[in-house]
Amino acid sequence: MPTDTALASPPPDTTFRTDIPGRLDRLPWSRWHWRVAIALGVAWVLDGLEVTLVGSVGAVLERPDTLGLSATEVGWSGSLYIAGAVLGALVFGRMADRLGRKRLFLATLAVYMVATLATAFAPDFAVFAACRFCTGLGIGGEYAAINSAIDELIPARVRGRVNLAINGSFWLGAALGAGLSLVLLDARVFGPVWGWRACFALGAVLAIAIVLVRRHVPESPRWLATHGRLDEAERIIAAIEAEIRATHGPLPPVSPDCAAVAMRRRAAPGVGEVMRLLLRRFRQRSVITLALMVAQAFFYNAIFFTYALVLSRFYGVPEARVALYIFPFALGNALGPLLLGPLFDHVGRRRMIAATYVLSGIGLALTGWAFVQGWLDARTQALCWSAVFFLASAAASSAYLTASEVFPLEMRALAISVFYAVGTGTGGFVAPLLLGALIESGSREAVAAGYGFGAALVIIAGLLALRFGIDAERRPLEHIAPPLGSDE
Q1: Closest CA to 131 of 213, 203, 39, 59
Q2: Closest Cα to residue 404, out of 87, 89, 32?
Q3: Are β-strands 15-18 and 3-4 bridged in parallel, bridged antiparallel, or unpaired?
Q4: Residue 158 DSSP one-character state
Q5: Residue 213 in contact with residue 106, Cβ under 8 Å?
Q6: Which segments constitute the Major facilitator superfamily (MFS) profile domain (predicted)?
Q7: Residue 449 counted as domain residue
Q8: Mean pLDDT of 396-420
Q9: pLDDT score for 446
Q10: Which structural domain, as residue segments, surrounds residue 352?
Q11: H/E/C letters for each residue in 128-141?
Q12: Distance from C-alpha of 412 to C-alpha of 475, rounded to nearest angstrom
């Protein structure tokens, strides 16, 4: 039977009741929430920066007066970054459930900072590749720790729009990476020989600034509660309430259905237990999440990692000008989650996930048809992709939102990691290889067929979400997925 527990730490394997989730969800949006969203959400800016930098400076790294890499070695550096991200997500995701969100979102940022700074000083391919792998480790770990912390700290009524906007900020990093490469590689600034090193060094400088901000983001009170650290959780949430009360006045009451949420003090489940839960107890949720993650990963990587190849091979765009075409693409991607995000909280998760997935698939299929017919030039091709990915960016962000809110708190970070790893591992490796081979053939019909396959994947995933998805909008996390053992 559940037992009421105030501030004393309950014994292990004891079920208790707490109002901590309800107190977090009732808070009005404030400067405190802005600080948390910016400090944590910048992880996606860094990822976008890193991915775009490698694409933008790839040709420069092939020059004999830089690292003298081959095209294959440039490709391997991208693959190693993805491999590092997959491994980092799995390793750090498990640690985030065991050790806490804050320790990990500081540790993963430190790994990224050191690795990307070391990249700037790489003397040869071996060191460069190792640094890219380690950079991926840090970024992959960020996804698990940050998505968990954001969902646990942001009020339920705005969780959808905030999560989507933060995930969509990847494209601010992409635009920043494209801009940095254009400026720093210019012969009037640093030039190619030193400019590529300056690009990576500035990424490390940005990370240092973020560390200083993140130090003030607290541990998740929800995580502390499930680990029996109720005194610490109470101090943190009382400080948050006091800060917000000082600017917003009296706080609204806690919702009656969140005034006594059942939790159980227990250790984080092991990998084996989490996999059993995903495959048995949460099988339907796992299938939906997996479908969403794999489909969006293939869709995105198929286009983004072959973006420059299509522009140069079929439209004759010089390599030096490819970065200019990233800006409209990044703009559409950044605006989609920002403008469509509120609808995920009001219209609902299932409907909006289905709509964005299906419509982006239809959009890509139509763009592929126009590509085959020769109706597009480089500019209109970029604009079509921008329109398609206005929808697709919101769709992809909703996949991460789904993974972070439909599984219990005790296994949330590892669950995010598993689906991120599988989605990124399949889409990140298969899509660029497949589309790259199709582009190499020189056949527009073959490339359009690849686009059609990606479109079919997201349409199927969207229809599955409409039929079997979870209506999670405006609901407390503990109602969507009760803590493990709380019903015992």
Answers
A1: 203
A2: 89
A3: parallel
A4: G
A5: no
A6: 36-473
A7: yes
A8: 94
A9: 93
A10: 31-218+270-480
A11: HHHHHHHHHHHHHH
A12: 16
CA dihedral 458, 464, 467, 468 (to 10 degrees): -130
Q: Say how many C-beta atoms besides its own lie within 10 A of residue 179's C-beta.
A: 16
Q: How does DSSP classify residue 305?
A: T
Average pLDDT over residues 254-282: 87
Could you tell me which residues come within 8 angstroms of residue 213 by beta carbon, excluding any fewer than 6 positions away?
A: 35, 38, 39
Q: What is the pLDDT of residue 3?
A: 40
Which helix (H) or strand (E) is 421 found in, with range?
A: helix 412-440
Letter string b/e over residues 53-62, b meaning 16 or more CB atoms within 10 A of that residue's CB: bbbbbbbbbe
Token reading at 367: 């763009």
Residue-level pLDDT at 189: 86
Q: How far apart are CA 451 and CA 435, in angstroms?
A: 8
What is the CATH classification number for the domain harbouring 168? 1.20.1250.20
Cα-based distances in Å from 385 to 45, 304, 434: 20, 10, 19
Residue 434 has pLDDT above 70, yes or no: yes
* CB 322, CB 312: distance < 8 Å: yes
Three-state DSSP state, 2: coil
Mean pLDDT for 333-339 is 95
Angle between helices 378-405 and 444-468 (to 10 degrees): 30
Dihedral angle, C-alpha 12, 17, 18, 22, nearest 10 °:
130
Residue 245 lies in a domain: no
Domain assignment present for residue 81? The answer is yes
Confidence of residue 209 (pLDDT cuts 50, 70, 90): confident
SS3 271: helix
Domain-embedded: residue 227:
no
Number of domains in the chain: 1
- Mean pLDDT, residues 250-261: 86
Residue of 137, 87, 83 whose CA lies nearest to 112: 137
What is the rounded distance in angstroms from the CA atom of residue 96 to the CA atom of residue 222? 13
Query: Two tokens at 214?
Result: 């993140």
Token pair, residue 313, equals 């091979």
Whether residue 63 contacts residue 185, with contact meaning beta carbons closer than 8 Å, is answered with no
Residue 6 pLDDT > 50:
no
Residues 74, 305 contacting (CB under 8 angstroms): no
Q: C-alpha distances in angstroms, 432 versus 9, 236, 386? A: 51, 45, 19
Residue ranges in 305-348 assigned as alpha helix (H): 307-315, 322-346
**Mean pLDDT of all residues belonging to the chain:** 89
